[in-house]
Amino acid sequence: xxxxxxxxxxxxxxxxxxxxxxxxxxxxxxxxxxxxxxxxxxxxxxxxxxxxxxxxxxxxxxxxxxxxxxxxxxxxxxxxxxxxxxxxxxxxxxxxxxxxxxxxxxxxxxxxxxxxxxxxxxxxxxxxxxxxxxxx
Length: 136
Ligand SMILES: [Zn+2]
Prior knowledge:
HAD superfamily hydrolase (TIGR01662 family), alpha/beta, HAD-SF_hydro_IIIA
């Protein structure tokens, strides 16, 4: 199973960090590849989640079937909506912004529902592994 990072990092557009900084960090964390939107939300690019540019880039580079991937994220209005648009599985983790995405900010992503609400990343990983087992 491959692991990719897909992230909005508008601090890059302010000159506070570089794409290379993030790529190095994700490499060190053990990701197989990383896809980074460096734009500010006002630039209206095609890669700032919930737009799907980053997903399409990953799909092309790694020949992914987007209907079979699992998106794990903590923000409903970006991660879950982007996943919804391409038909991917969606896991919202309660860490980071996740708990508030599920409650205070639920109205920002009403179009869809997570396939699973995970307490944390390990919980999400176990859900995926169990799903894999069930499929065999
Ligand atoms: Zn972008």
